[in-house]
Design a protein that fits this description.
Elements: H1 13-22, E1 28-31, H2 38-42, E2 49-53, H3 56-66, H4 75-96, H5 98-109, H6 112-121, H7 129-140, H8 149-154, H9 161-176, H10 183-197, H11 213-223, H12 227-237, H13 244-248, E3 251-254, H14 257-263, E4 269-274, H15 283-286, H16 288-295, H17 322-335, E5 340-345, H18 349-352, H19 357-361, E6 367-378, E7 388-399
Parallel strand pairs: 1-2, 1-4, 2-3, 4-5
Antiparallel strand pairs: 5-7, 6-7
Bound molecules: S-adenosylmethionine (SAM).
S-adenosylmethionine binds next to helix 2, strand 2 and helix 14.
Length: 400
């Protein structure tokens, strides 16, 4: 997987693929809540795919992997092309942040308390008027000083300042690169590199603090690693999936799944696969950092997680709206006159609302079959606390 992700169906992808293949889809398969695209990837020999997700950084990963002609450049070519602009912006930022970078070195060489103090005192857009002013100027700048978002928002927390500087410099180089056919690949690798080194438990709702000796050792070790080196490796990890002709017919959308199925704009569709969120955790809260990095749009920032306020929210993660959201999903897909395959665990939010998926689906589909599997869900320490939760994973195959 390119980026570790809550609720991934990687462990289930073969079951989903087999269930969809049995339907012999007479057209493309829509992966409506595609996340990291593990189901879309599994379909490379079964059908062309349309992916959709509300988070735009996931779409960059999907475009890089599921669309586009065979790449003509190697990762070494890309690195050679980007390096001069990367070095130039890195040097500029190292001058701007010379004092802070020195303090960071001292904190990393010091005790656990030194590092805690450094993190607690660090200035960022979420706690400093001066940084907010700098961010506003950077947002409006068309020059190289535009490239400071990671440093201004996420340094001395999710990343070391040195890593944030590297991330900003790499983004400056990617944005200046004229090979637009490689852009999604480069941005996907840039996000993937960040996810390898991010000081957070898989998701990015909050960063980790050196609250124990082992956490301190881990942060010191991670913070001294190079984002640029990781980016170089990630260019190879973000490889294209399937054949060029499979990728030619695939499409990638970003938006609310319910809007996509109600708009009536999808063409050549054979089956819809839906893997909606099943807890009250809004993904936009857990993955806001990648979203802000990808969009590079200098939003507001607040709280311990330095989170943007204009986050996407979905009714699938609200107890008061989950039932209506399932009705919307089933109603709109049944109007498309194609089968709907839904992944949903037994302990999902819908069950908390006292309803089951088949109870809703049968109101719109003539035949609803259930297949159940035992699975360990990775919660990554989200709202349930435990990092692994055993659950029954269900596939509901709904036929018109
Ligand atoms: C359970 S995860 C899907 C995981 C995916 N199948 C995989 O294997 O990586 C749910 C996904 O739905 C997205 N999402 C949540 N609500 C959405 C909505 N209303 N429309 C589109 N995407 C949504 C989240 O961003 C998340 O990526």
């Amino acid at each position: 997987m390119v980026v570790r992700y809550m609720g991934t169906k990687r462990h289930m992808a073969d079951h989903v693929r087999d269930a969809i293949a049995e339907l012999e889809p007479a057209g493309r398969v829509v992966d409506l809540f595609s996340g990291m695209g593990s189901v879309a990837e599994s379909l490379q020999e079964t059908a062309s795919v349309v992916t959709n997700d509300a988070m735009s950084f996931t779409a960059a990963l999907s475009r890089a992997r599921f669309t586009g002609s065979d790449r003509e450049t190697t990762s070494a070519d890309v690195i050679k092309r980007l390096k001069p602009a990367y070095e130039a912006r890195r040097r500029e930022l190292e001058l701007v942040y010379a004092t802070e970078l020195n303090s960071e070195v001292t904190a990393l060489e010091g005790s656990r308390t030194d590092l805690l103090n450094y993190m607690d005192k660090a200035q960022h857009v979420g706690n400093s008027t001066a940084q907010r002013r700098t961010a506003k100027a950077a947002a409006e700048s068309s020059g190289s000083d535009h490239y400071a978002l990671a440093s201004l928002y996420f340094s001395a927390g999710y990343l070391s300042l040195r890593q944030a500087v590297q991330l900003d410099a790499a983004r400056a180089a990617i944005d200046a690169d004229s090979h637009l056919e490689d852009r999604d690949w480069m941005l996907a690798a840039w996000i993937a590199a960040t996810s390898v080194l991010v000081n957070a438990p898989g998701h990015t709702a909050q960063f980790l603090r050196p609250n124990s000796d082992s956490a301190h050792t881990r942060i010191v070790r991670t913070w001294t690693r190079s984002i640029w080196d990781e980016f170089t490796l990630a260019l190879d990890t973000v490889s294209q999936v399937g054949t060029e002709s499979w990728r030619r017919d695939n499409s990638v959308y970003v938006g609310d799944a319910l809007d996509l199925v109600s708009a009536g704009e999808l063409r050549d569709i054979g089956t819809v696969y839906a893997d909606p969120p099943y807890t009250k955790d809004q993904y936009s809260r857990y993955y806001h950092m990648y979203e802000t990095l990808y969009r590079y749009d200098f939003p507001d920032s607040s709280g311990a997680g330095r989170n943007r306020s204009d986050r996407f929210t979905t009714g699938f993660s609200l107890k008061s709206a989950v039932v209506a959201s399932f009705h919307d999903l089933c109603r709109n897909v049944s109007r498309m006159r194609v089968p709907l395959v839904i992944s949903y665990p037994s302990s999902g939010l819908l069950d908390d609302a006292g309803v089951t998926v088949p109870e809703i689906a049968r109101q719109y589909f003539g035949n609803v079959q259930t297949r159940s599997y035992n699975a360990n869900h990775s919660t990554m320490g989200a709202s349930t606390g435990a990092s692994k939760k055993s659950a029954t994973e269900n596939l509901y195959v709904c036929l018109v």
